[in-house]
Structure formats: structure tokens, C-alpha cells
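Appendix C reproduces, verbatim, an entry submitted by the partner laboratory led by Prof. M.T., so that reviewers can inspect both the input and the predicted structure.
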Amino acid sequence: MTYQHAIEYLMSFLNLEKAPGQKYRDDSYNLDDFRQLLNQLGNPQNSFKSILVAGTKGKGSTAAFIESALSAQGLKAGLYTSPHLISFCERIKLGGRSILERDFAQRLDWLKPFLEKQKVNAHSKTGGRSTVFEILTAMAFLYFQEMRIDWAVLEVGLGGRLDCTNVVNPRVSVITNISHDHTEILGESLKEIAGEKAGIIRQDGLAVTSPQGAEALKVIMNRCRELNARLFQVGKDVIFKISEQNPEHLSLDLAGTFGKLNSVELGLNGDFQAENAATAFAALRALQFRNQQVGDPAIRKGFKDISWPGRLQTVSRHPLIIIDGAHNDYSAYRLKKAVEILYPEKTRILVLGISANKDIGGIVSNLVPQSRVLVITKAKHSRAATPEAIRREAKKFAVPVIETETLCQALDRAKELAMPQDLVLVTGSLFLAGETLELLGKKI
């Protein structure tokens, strides 16, 4: 099986990242079939220790910080994340390197007979067919088992309680900031959303949470109390402060229950990444209660060497072009504040493409008013909102609007308009960020 054949076969299964969302209930997101598949595979997820990361914003970055530090400690660490920016191979990493295309294809080819057998025997929500995400998760487990890794850092795909990554027994359960996203699936209230994400916490386990609003924090604390799980809170047990920040550099000081660590340089920028790094620090330090030490030098090296594209990433200097995968109201707000801090003298040309199932109004209201020009576009992804849908929200603000049908057209137009004092900000979805990187020939 070639890589192209592997992708074609994979895409013959239900892809919930492109299909309309089903309500997040036990009858529509049932893990029984997936557990049965893993059982037939010999339960590869039990061959390594794992850390599970859920949340609305920052879970991928937090997972990447954790994996990078574990690797810097000399441990064999795997990372499983979603979605990808350009290639499916990005989702499965070992020591910071994506799985090779040939290895990806070989694992899927090996898995294929089990998937075909499952079609005949199962009677699940998908008519006996695994979803794309379930298949990728099984492939990651198999690859990590074969590579004999020490630790896997797993990013939850959606929610937590019923996500297929939640079949592992995590040594630490991490919950990053919770806000409104995927409300059509997870529910409208923060209480509902937090309840689903708190489903990754285990009996007598260890849990770490980023700073949360009162409603979400109450749910997490109650869950930990019910399960006798020990909870470490960033903002209480771990305190962080940005010690230095400019467009080229971000460092922070960490203190609290796990001692002090000052002037920790990050390989990612933005004040929100300081929060993600502090959450990763708490998770790494909590591992001492699971007989795993991660020293200060490893944390320093791992946090500095992290590679996590598409997040406040500078992809061009002339003109200055920055891309970010902000895709909900809260992440758009954090992006706006980060740009204001890092580039206070710059005027903005905003290239914006949003998924149709997102809070278009919230994203627009955070990013458009500060822009000199708005260039509306759409990613190739099937969930992309039409330029007209974005324009309807943008009309509320006195900002010149240009509509384009493709991202290539949008980038060309933005470059033509860019003056020396301008910053071109490309954002609205991770799909748009990935397509931008691909168009500009950037390697992941």
C-alpha cells in the first residue's frame, strides 16, 4: 500500500472532522466498537505510559510542550495530536518527528484486515465502520507500541469522556482552558462542556488544569473530589509570570508547589503560550508522583526547542506575515491581545477564513475592528464558511472589505496592499493556517 492509497482508503471511512457534528451522547459516540478493535489488536495502548490532554484552547501546544520536555529528558516519547496542518503524518510523532509516509501506509495496511472484519461484525453508529479519527488513534497506538516508547502524550480529539483517546489509563490528566466551542456537539453551557472534558480524570488519579472560569473550575474540582483525584491548578499551585517578551523572544518565571524555575525561554510566542507552558510544567512536575522525574535542564531545553507550527508563526518578513489557527471567540481575543503586545506600532491587514460551524460573529468582532483592511477568503476544507457569511458580520464595522474565492488570491491581494508599517495576519482556522503554510512552501 502506497501513502496515496493509504489516504484514499482512510478517506473511505466516516470523517467526523468534515461531517456535520452529532450530539455528544453515549449512543452516538460509543467506544465499545473501538475497545473491541483494540482488544483484537492486543491492546497496544497498554504497552506505554500516557498523559491525556483535553481542553478547548491550547491543548495541542500544551501536549507539544510536554512531549518536547520528555524527549529532552532522554525518554522515548510519542505525540498524538489533531487536526493536521498539511499531512496526516503530522498527527503521529516520535521524538518530535512525524511518522514517515511509508511507515504510515504500512501500519494502515496491517490494520486493514481488522477494519474489514469490523465492517461485517459491528453494528455501531457508523454502520460497523470505524471513523477516521478512531483508525488514526489505533495506528498511533500500534506505532508507539512497535517503537517501544516510554511515554505517549495524547491530545483529545473532541470533548473527553467519549473520545477514543480516553481508552488509555493516563498517569496525568490535563485540562487546558475551557470555553465555548463545538457547542452543537458538546452542549451550550460551560458546565456541560467542562463535564465532558473532566471525563478524562481517573479514580485516585492526578489532574492538572489551566486557569479556568469559576463555572468550569467547579465542575473539575467536583469531579476530582468524587474520584479522590489530586488536582494541581495553574494560577494557584503553579504561578507564572512573563519575564521578557518581544517579537523574537518569550521567557517566563515559574513558581509554586513544585519550586521555582526562572527565565524559561519558550520556542513559541504569545502570552497564551506562557499559560500553556505553565500547564505543561505542572503536568511534568506531577509525574514525580508516578515515579518519573523530569529535571530543570530537560524542561528548559524542551520548552525552547518545541516545534508547533501554525501558532502565531512568522512566515515572512517582507512583508511581515503571521499565521495563527485561532478558531473561536476566545482564541481570537487572545490572538488580538498578543498582536497588540508584540506589534503595537503595526497596522493590520487581516486575511480571514472561518469554518461555518464556528462563532463567526465572535471571531470577527475580536479581529476586524483593529484592522486597516479585511481580506475575506475560505480554506479548501468542506466546513469553510462562505465569504458572504463572514462579510455579513464584518459589515458592522467600518473596515474596507475585499472578498476572494481562494486563499492564494487573498494572500496575493494582501501582499499588494501591504505597506512597510503593515502586518498581514492570516487566521480564522487551523485549516487556513495549514493551507497557508503549504502555499508558501513551509515544511512542518
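The mean pLDDT is 94. Additional entries are available on request from the coordinating office.
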